[in-house]
Amino acid sequence: MPSGPATIGEFSVLPVSIPPLPSFLQNATHYLYVRRNAPKIPTANDSRSLFLTNIPVDSTEAHLRALVASLVGAGRFESVTFADERRDALAQSTPDAAQPAQAGRALQAHGAKKRKREDEEAGRAQEGAAARLPSTWTRPLRRSGSTAVVLLADDRSAAQVLKAIAKANRTRRYPAWGGDALPDGRVPPLGSVWLRAHNRLSYPDRDALQASIDAFSALFARREQEAAETAKRMRHEPDADGFVTVTRGGRNAPASRNEAEDARRKMLERQDKKKEELTNFYRFQLRERKKEEQVELLKRFDEDRRKLGAMREKRGKFVPEA
Prior knowledge:
- This protein is an alpha+beta fold.
- It has a domain at 7-97 and 140-189.
- The protein has helices at residues 61-72, 83-92, 101-109, 118-131, 155-171, 192-201, 206-235, 257-316; strands at residues 7-8, 11-18, 28-36, 49-53, 77-82, 147-152.
- A 6-stranded antiparallel β-sheet has the order 1-2-3-4-6-5.
C-alpha cells in the first residue's frame, strides 16, 4: 500500500484497503479524511462526533461500524448521518408531484394552514410510498466525495479513533473496507454482479409497476378533487381585503356580478368605517388640545389680573411731593 502524509490540514488521513471485486481483481486503496466535527451551529454531541469526507460510494452504517470496531474495538460506534440523507429529508418537505398546483395556489392565496391528525399524516405517507415507482438499486449509493458524521459513545472514543488512525499511519497497517459488516463478511459487489442486479430492477414486474401507477393516479385525482372543492368554498368567502377569488372554467368557477358588487360594497363600508374611526380619533386629539390651550389662557389671565391689582394698590399708596 502506498505511503502518504498522515495529516492534511486539520484532517487525519486514513487509508483503507478495498478488497478485490469480480470487476477488479486487485487490491485498491481508498483515502478517508477524518477530523473532529465542528459545524457552524454547535450541538451537544460535537465533542463525541467525527466528520468524515471522501467516504466510499458504497458506504453504509454497517461498514462504518465495522471500520470503527477494527480501529478501537466494538461498542464505541453509535450512529452515522450521511450528507445525502439530510438532503433527502429536506426534499421530502417540498411538495410532491401528486399535489395539484391549483391546491397550492388556493391555499396560499387565502393563508390556509395545514392541520392534519397523526392518523391522516400516516395515511398520506403510505399513499405517497405506494405511488412511488419501485427502486432500481439494491442499496443506496453515495456521491463521490460525500461526507458523513459518525457519533461515538463518548468523547474518549472519538479521541481514541484519531489516535488509532495516527498509529495505523506509523505502522502502515491499515484496516480493510467491509470486514464483518455483513453476515457473509464481504462487501456487496459493485462490478458486473451489481450491474446485472440494477439492470434487472430497471424493468420491474408489470403488476408492481401498474400498482404504482394506479396509486399515483388515484392520489392525484383525489387531491385535485379536494383542491376543486376548496376553491369552490373559497369563492363565496371574501378575503381580508374584501375580494372574492375568481377562477376560470366550470359552471361554479367565476363569481357572479352581484357577488362581486356585494363584496365591493362591503369593502367600501369597511374602508369608510376605518376612515371614520381615524377621523374621530383626530377630533378627540383636537378637543384635548383645545382644552389644554383654554386652561393655559385662564391661568395666564389670572396671573395678569393679580399683577394688575398689585400695581393699582402700589399706585394708590404713592403720595407726590408738594
